[in-house]
């Protein structure tokens, strides 16, 4: 125990009993922080530190007034601290203090942020202990996850097959706090990934809370046995859910009652979007971490914070169900062509408050009269919205009418009426001082109010009456804290006051008096005020409970309004930006005519581009693909000079597919989109390195993830993959990945690369096609046309630029020569294309030798043409038995240099300098 006694001692011993980082302890009208905690808050929040001496020692102390705690709490929690709050309460022998809440990022109710604030738990199914009873399903694999938002009462569970999928779910929900299950704590890999990639506080909640039995009990208690059983999720998932419930209860947020529903989040319904993809596509923030410029910020025209939350949710969780999407589309279509009604809807929605949040506040007991009033006003928005929909023909026969009818409108209206009849127009923010309720709401209250008003009236008329009765001038009646009610008489008249006046104070120009009668009235009015305050507080609590009991209804209405808000927002964006309704289907075909990038088109004169993947169906597209036999193209190799628009083109395709799968219209002239089950993107490490983020290791592990996770129904976007390593390594990886994606995975793929070698694949692999972003080079000017055309690009572009830049002809010619030789000599064969594999010479960079002549005439492959397995396992390394010293070191050094240089990223001037350097070396 600690040596300090008194208040500091009490503080320190309370602190010892909690695992919170900081303790705020109520001392009268203040919350105080002592010792280390005082230093922390002083540092973080700019509070003044004073010294508190306690029995000979001195302790740092900082404090905030009781009513100001919330912003400080919020600020501390947002900085990642867990803050315990100890309240003071009266006892018979004075007062005592007790920790009533531990506020953590995931249990912070006082948030002003409109984003969802998820608390997550993740449990490893395989290593879940089942109390050794053997009742656990030990065959279960993967992870169970649960997510709760205490500010809205949302509660979801999800299952993941492996650590990557678990991470994807975590990333999708973007929790602020994560409770790793017992086994996850010791699984360093997953924990590290969570720590690095999910911006959340990690909290080690007591392991017993994860115990299957206890968790199952808690979950059934909360949501009902049947509901939980119907979810048919594994033990690990229930463990995660139970742990969250226990944590929410233990931290004392008091919102368990607002968690009325548990929902299964099934990955199967949703398009897989792994963490990297969400970041690459800049869904909610840009690569630089700004929210401006994200896809969300671009398309967001919502009116309410609940709508904003839902739109984000849709973007991060696109759907796969054609029915769901078509229903959303039908609503968006109806709304986009009903501009007036849409404006009206949006204006009406503008009056809606955040019902889900208010429901949670009501449950927690922190909602005040204004909050309840907003509940009532927001409930009134629902019928207004329904009316607009019903009276607009285009909307009335759209799915919107069903959506708006989903909550129980009758019950909602009853609750609205109750609140409307109860609360006065402009209620005060305190709920203990009365003046909250309207007349006619409660008879007892009415009687008190009436009596109160009578006395008030009597007091109001007192000054006049005294003047008249006693012939006094300059009389006023007023009230203050020290004197209570008094009659104030001007000095000149003060001597003429009647005998029953009792003087209580002399001021410069006047005297204050009281009378027995006035004192009686004063007592009565104080008694009435107290009575009114108490009565109204009781009534208010009752009303608040009535509202809290309807938490589920409020969530329904909130959800409905948010849904309409999002649909109207999508419609607005579509109408204002000439987006079209894509034709969705379950097939493979992806055809976008004159597609644009949804974000870039906002700020740029955008050049639209087409894309076609999958079997060509329409006559028009067959014509466009004139004469080609490879109608079924599933893999596009996208080439083009730097900055020509390759990345933008591919992201545009991904964004359009994603938008289509949230039910939105898309930036194109026409689009036909076969639904995908996942979108995977990977940007080469070099491009990402510029952002200081990634390493080649990460690039490769993510490529590996794609190769594992993508299916033939997925869309894969590879941008310069392989670029993060030396050229030959890079080409080899890109080449092999292409073959694998084409032959095995068969995903729809777009692969932008500066390795022109890869364009050769189109001839070898049936579903691979080349497209390039055209650039025009004329009269010494390079114009980026931004137009995507069929076929590979001109590969000597870099040298062409050198030429244009005025590099002397001999150098340019020589460079072409060098490049041609490099290209010819390191030709690579493609696997999996035709029946007989082409055999070509491989340039072994490490030995600096060309392995045998080009073997086109069917001669025996040279000994260096090892089997595919060999090549794969040994990479570009030279077999140990081969001579490494066949050429002189000078030449070897040059060759090594040539190998390591990246023609596409090295500025032409530098290239030229290099070539000169090589020539000099070779002459030596
Ligand atoms: P790459 O990946 O080929 O190096 P990017 O896709 O990064 O090129 O595009 C380079 C620049 O060109 C970007 O600033 C982008 O905004 C612009 N851009 C790309 N495509 C288009 C287009 N279709 N219309 C207009 N500008 C475009
Ligand atoms: Mg690029």
Question: What does this entry show, briefly?
Answer:
This protein is an alpha/beta fold. Helix content is 45%, strand content 18%.
User: Can you give the helix content as a percent range?
Assistant: 40-55%
| SS summary, helix count | 35
As a percent range, the share of strand residues is 15-25%
Overall number of strands = 29
Shape: elongated
Query: Between the first and last Cα atoms, what is the distance in angstroms?
Result: 81 Å
**What about the largest sheet?**
7 strands, mixed
Ligand roster: adenosine-5'-diphosphate, magnesium ion
Biggest sheet, spatial arrangement of strands: 13-23-24-25-21-26-27
Average per-residue pLDDT, rounded, comes to: 84
Which key terms come to mind for this protein?
elongated, binds magnesium ion, damaged DNA binding, six-stranded mixed β-sheet, 924 residues, seven-stranded mixed β-sheet, coiled coil, nucleotide-binding, 29 strands, alpha/beta, binds adenosine-5'-diphosphate
Report what the structure shows.
There is one protein chain. By secondary structure, the chain is an alpha/beta fold. Helices cover 45% and strands 18% of the residues. The protein contains 35 helices and 29 strands. The strands form 6 sheets. Strands 13-23-24-25-21-26-27 form a 7-stranded mixed beta sheet, sandwiched between helices. The longest helix is centred in the middle third of the chain and has 34 residues, at 516-549. The N and C termini lie far apart (81 Å). The chain binds adenosine-5'-diphosphate and magnesium ion.
């Amino acid at each position: 125990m600690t040596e300090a006694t008194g208040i500091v001692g009490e503080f320190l011993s309370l602190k010892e009993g909690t695992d919170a980082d900081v303790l705020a302890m109520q001392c009268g009208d203040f919350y105080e922080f002592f010792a280390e905690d005082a230093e922390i808050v002083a540092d973080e929040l700019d509070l003044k530190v004073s010294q508190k001496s306690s029995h000979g020692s001195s302790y740092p102390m900082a404090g905030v007034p009781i009513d100001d705690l919330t912003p400080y709490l919020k600020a501390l929690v947002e900085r990642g601290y867990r803050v315990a709050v100890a309240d003071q309460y009266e006892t018979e022998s004075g007062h005592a203090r007790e920790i009533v809440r531990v506020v953590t990022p995931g249990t912070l109710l006082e948030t002003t942020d409109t984003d969802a604030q998820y608390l997550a738990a993740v449990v490893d199914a395989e290593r879940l202990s089942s109390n050794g009873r053997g009742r656990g399903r030990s065959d279960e694999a993967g992870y169970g996850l649960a997510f709760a938002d205490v500010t809205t009462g949302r509660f979801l569970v999800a299952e993941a097959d492996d650590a990557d999928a678990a991470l994807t779910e975590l990333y999708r929900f973007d929790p602020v706090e994560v409770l790793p299950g017992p086994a996850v704590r010791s699984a360093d890999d997953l924990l590290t990934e969570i720590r690095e990639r999910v911006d959340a506080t990690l909290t080690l909640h007591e392991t017993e809370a994860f115990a299957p039995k206890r968790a199952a009990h808690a979950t059934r208690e909360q949501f009902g046995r049947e509901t939980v059983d119907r979810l048919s999720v594994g033990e690990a998932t229930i463990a995660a859910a139970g742990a969250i419930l226990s944590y929410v209860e233990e931290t004392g947020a008091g919102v368990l009652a607002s968690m009325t529903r548990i929902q299964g989040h099934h990955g199967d319904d949703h398009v897989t979007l792994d963490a990297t993809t969400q970041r690459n596509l800049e869904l909610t923030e840009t690569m630089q971490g700004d929210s401006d410029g994200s896809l969300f910020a671009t398309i967001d025209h919502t009116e309410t914070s609940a709508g904003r939350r839902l739109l984000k949710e849709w973007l991060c969780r696109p759907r796969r169900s054609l029915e769901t999407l078509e229903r959303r589309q039908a609503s968006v279509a109806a709304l986009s062509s009903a501009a007036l009604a849409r404006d009206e809807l949006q204006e009406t929605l503008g009056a809606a408050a955040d019902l889900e949040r208010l429901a949670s506040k009501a449950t927690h007991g922190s909602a005040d009269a204004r909050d309840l009033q907003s509940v009532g006003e927001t409930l009134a928005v629902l019928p207004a919205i329904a009316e607009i929909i019903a009276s607009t023909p285009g909307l009335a026969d759209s799915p919107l009418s069903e959506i708006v009818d989903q909550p129980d409108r009758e019950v909602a209206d009853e609750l609205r009426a109750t609140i409307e009849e109860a609360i006065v127009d402009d209620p005060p923010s305190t709920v203990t001082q009365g003046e909250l309720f309207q007349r006619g709401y409660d008879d007892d209250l009415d009687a008190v109010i009436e009596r109160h008003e009578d006395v008030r009236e009597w007091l109001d008329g007192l000054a006049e009456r005294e003047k008249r009765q006693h012939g006094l001038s300059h009389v006023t009646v007023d009230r203050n804290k020290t004197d209570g009610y008094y009659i104030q008489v001007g000095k000149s008249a003060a001597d003429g006051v009647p005998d029953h006046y009792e003087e209580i104070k002399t001021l410069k120009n006047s005297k204050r008096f009281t009378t027995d009668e006035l004192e009686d009235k004063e007592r009565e009015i104080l008694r009435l005020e107290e009575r009114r305050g108490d009565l109204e507080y009781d009534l208010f609590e009752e009303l608040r409970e009535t509202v809290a009991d309807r938490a589920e209804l409020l969530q329904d209405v909130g959800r409905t309004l948010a849904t309409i808000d999002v649909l109207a927002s999508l419609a607005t964006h579509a109408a204002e930006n000439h987006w079209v309704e894509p034709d969705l289907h379950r097939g493979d075909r992806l055809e976008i005519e004159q597609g644009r990038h949804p974000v870039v088109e906002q700020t740029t004169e955008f050049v639209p581009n087409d894309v076609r993947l999958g079997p060509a169906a329409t006559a028009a597209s067959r014509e466009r693909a004139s004469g080609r036999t490879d109608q079924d193209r599933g893999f596009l190799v996208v080439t083009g000079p730097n900055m020509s628009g390759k990345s933008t083109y591919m992201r545009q395709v991904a964004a359009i597919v994603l938008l289509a799968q949230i039910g939105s219209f898309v930036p194109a002239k026409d689009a036909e989109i076969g639904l995908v089950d996942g979108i995977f993107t990977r940007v080469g490490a070099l491009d990402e390195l510029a952002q200081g983020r990634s390493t080649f290791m990460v690039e490769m592990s993510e490529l590996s993830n794609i190769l594992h996770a993508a299916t033939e129904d997925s869309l894969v976007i590879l941008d310069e993959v392989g670029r993060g390593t030396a050229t030959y390594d890079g080409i080899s990886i890109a080449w092999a990945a292409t073959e694998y994606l084409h032959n095995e995975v068969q995903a729809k793929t777009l692969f932008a690369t500066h390795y022109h070698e890869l364009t050769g694949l189109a001839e070898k692999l049936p579903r691979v096609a080349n497209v390039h972003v055209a650039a025009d080079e004329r009269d010494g000017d390079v114009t980026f046309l931004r137009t995507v055309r069929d076929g590979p690009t001109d590969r000597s572009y870099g040298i062409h630029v050198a030429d244009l830049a005025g590099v002397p002809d001999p150098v340019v010619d020589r460079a072409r020569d060098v490049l041609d030789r490099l290209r010819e000599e390191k030709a690579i064969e493609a696997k999996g294309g035709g029946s007989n594999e082409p055999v070509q010479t491989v340039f072994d960079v490490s030995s600096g030798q060309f392995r045998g002549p080009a073997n086109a005439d069917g001669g025996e492959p040279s000994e260096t043409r090892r089997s595919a397995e060999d090549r794969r396992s040994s990479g570009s390394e030279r077999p140990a038995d081969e001579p490494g010293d066949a050429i002189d070191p000078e030449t070897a050094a040059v060759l090594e240099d040539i190998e390591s240089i990246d023609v596409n990223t090295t500025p032409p001037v530098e290239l030229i300098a290099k070539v000169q350097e090589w020539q000099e070396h070779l002459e030596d």
